[in-house]
Write a structure and sequence with these properties.
This protein is mainly alpha-helical. It folds into three domains: 135 residues; 132 residues, no CATH class; 149 residues, Leucine-rich repeat, LRR (right-handed beta-alpha superhelix) (Alpha-Beta Horseshoe), CATH 3.80.10.10. The chain has a seven-stranded mixed β-sheet with strand order 1-2-3-4-5-6-7, covered by helices on one side. Helix 3 packs antiparallel against helix 4. One of its GO terms (molecular function) is heme binding. It holds the Pfam family DUF2231.
């Protein structure tokens, strides 16, 4: 293998290392120049000239390495030019100071020292703007003590624009510092749709419809101490809900204009959207009802059993990186689901999420499912499940979320789940539960989020109320 080494590239990336030493030396030399005017400190005078020489030479090296770094194309051109010329001016004045120091009057010498300090401050500010964003000074005053921003509620979440109202604020808060107008690491810019579509050096920053294969998402899911993890570990990190929001947006396709109501949303997204509706960005409550990984560790699942299920068309994946807990999805094995269910038995300790939406299962299949001690999320939407099958689920000790959308269950059949101490979410849209039954179901399950298929939109004092008279 032939490894090509780019000397300019190496010098460019050494710029942050090289630049700070001459800054310190020059500032110290200027300080010595100023205070040595007092008799008490006049012995510092001989040290000023060599310090100025070292600082000036370091400034020249900083200009050279900075030039090579600017060739990477990762920074805003106009801001780079300003920073570059300010750096050249600093080096030039420092060199002039070195050669003329002992040939000019003391007042002029002191004036030059002040000018050098001013140039260093101005150049450093421009460098900080390139590295941390143009608002890096204000950020220290506006975001003290926290890494996330409390966002204003979105009263009617269904009418919100997915990109402008939900996605863009996340990118602005967590990504623009490195991928905005002032800086484009990896030649990636995320502050405008055209730049997002263009992508960066890798070419697969976002694969529309394939969030899991998009580099943006895969890097966010890497361990925080991984060198490729984004954002860098010293920067504010995305919450779990924010990552899910970005995945949902990417999976929806090339979408910058659609509203929330125009995109399909699963159970997890409904929780997140409802949290955003109340002003929660997902750092705490948005996924509280979706905590599906038990705290106790579990042994890895039997590899042979997993292989049999995969060959039968069942998707078996870990629910989280480096976890032995699993989810099973019958999306590609829906037709033969009733006969395949038995293959899940060896995985009953590891299985926490079972997706049987649209699968050809009957009430009899639920007898086996009722014996899964770790199961926390069960999706049975659009299946032939009836009240008879629900009675076999009352033995699930950890069940938190149950999706019965489009099934034949009734309000009477739900009574068998009343004793559950863990159930938190119940989805009943398009089931045989009647509209007039929902009040009774809420009393039956006072601590459960009962979803009838519509969002609950709170009323705020700032909302507009239209009053009409009787006709």
């Amino acid at each position: 293998m032939i490894v090509l080494i780019s000397i300019p590239g190496i010098l460019g990336h050494l710029h942050p290392v090289i630049v700070h030493l001459p800054i310190g030396i020059l500032l110290l030399a200027c300080l010595f120049e100023l205070i040595s005017m007092r008799p008490r400190y006049e012995k510092l005078q001989p040290a000023v000239s060599p310090m100025l020489f070292m600082g000036a030479m370091g400034s020249v090296m900083s200009c050279i390495s900075g030039y090579f770094l600017s060739l990477s194309g990762e920074y805003d051109g106009s801001l780079v030019a300003s920073h570059q010329w300010a750096g050249i001016a600093t080096a030039a004045v420092a060199l002039l100071y070195v050669f003329l120091r002992n040939k000019v009057a003391i007042p002029l010498r002191l004036s030059v020292a002040v000018i050098v300090c001013g140039l260093i401050t101005f150049t450093g500010h421009l460098g900080g703007s390139l590295t941390h964003g143009s608002d890096y000074l204000a950020a220290g005053w506006t975001d003290v003590g926290g890494s996330t921003v409390k966002r204003a509620p979105i009263p009617v979440i269904e009418e919100a624009a997915v990109y402008a109202d939900l996605v863009q604020p996340v990118l602005a808060e967590k990504c623009y510092n490195c991928h905005g107008a002032g800086k484009q690491k990896g030649k990636l810019r995320l502050d405008q749709p055209d730049f997002i579509l263009k992508g960066g050096e890798s070419g697969n920053t976002i694969l529309w419809g394939k969030a899991a294969e998009s580099e943006m998402i895969s890097r966010m899911l890497l361990p925080v101490n991984d060198d490729d993890h984004m954002p860098p570990r010293e920067k504010p990190q995305l919450t779990a809900a924010e990552v899910e929001l970005l995945k949902w947006w990417i999976n929806s396709g090339n979408n910058f204009t659609q509203k929330v109501k125009e995109l399909p949303s699963d159970e997890k997204m409904k929780h997140i959207l409802l949290a955003l509706q109340s002003g929660d960005n997902g750092s705490t409550t948005a996924l509280a009802a979706d905590k599906i990984i038990p705290e106790a560790p579990v042994d890895a699942a039997d590899a042979v059993a997993v292989d049999k299920l995969k060959k039968a068309g069942v998707m078996i994946v870990p629910v989280e990186r480096n976890s032995n807990y699993l989810s099973a999805n019958f999306v590609t094995a829906a037709n033969g689901a009733d006969s395949i269910i038995a293959l899940l038995s060896p995985l009953k300790k590891q299985l926490v999420w079972l997706k049987l939406d649209n699968a050809g299962i009957t009430d009899e299949s639920l007898s086996l499912i009722g014996d899964f001690p770790s199961l926390r999320k069960l999706q049975l939407s659009n299946t032939a499940i009836t009240d008879k099958g629900l009675s076999k689920l009352q033995s699930l000790p950890e069940l938190q979320s149950l999706n019965l959308v489009g099934t034949g269950v009734t309000a009477k059949g739900l009574q068998v789940l009343q004793q559950s101490k863990t159930l938190r979410s119940l989805y009943l849209y398009k089931s045989n539960v009647k509209k007039e039954d929902y009040a009774g179901i809420k009393k039956m399950f006072p601590k459960v989020d009962v979803d009838s298929g519509n969002y609950v939109v709170p009323t705020f004092m700032t909302d507009t109320t239209v009053v009409t008279g009787k006709k």
